[in-house]
Amino acid sequence: MSALEQEIYHKFGLLDKDARLRVIARLELEAQVDDNSLEPMSPQEGLDWLTNFGEYIQNKYGNLSYNSVDLLNEAREERLDDLLGGG
Asked: How far is it, in rounded angstroms, from Cα 57 to Cα 24?
């Protein structure tokens, strides 16, 4: 057992019964969340997640007039104008 684990165990022993039960429940919940987040997605699951996320953004914010490519092109055009003295 590491020093940190020993310290946690010691502090846990200082809690009353109700507090111990709350801490145990919280730690079990955290462990489940960590376990779920470590499962890798297949390429198809990843694509499905991204598609659903895109639909969520579209539904929430509507049709966004700019995207990252448009903004990059605009920045390039402005920089080219600055370099050529236009503008």
From this structure: 37
Asked, for residue 66, whether it belongs to a domain, the answer is yes
Report yes or no on 52 lying in a domain. Answer: no
Helix, strand, coil in percent for the chain, rounding step 5: 80, 0, 20
Q: Are 23 and 15 in contact (CB under 8 A)?
A: yes
Q: Is residue 46 part of a domain?
A: no
Residue 70 lies in a domain: yes
pLDDT tens digits along 25-76: 888 888 877 555 557 888 999 899 899 998 888 888 887 777 788 889 989 9
Residues 44 and 55: beta-carbon distance below 8 Å: no
pTM for this entry: 0.38
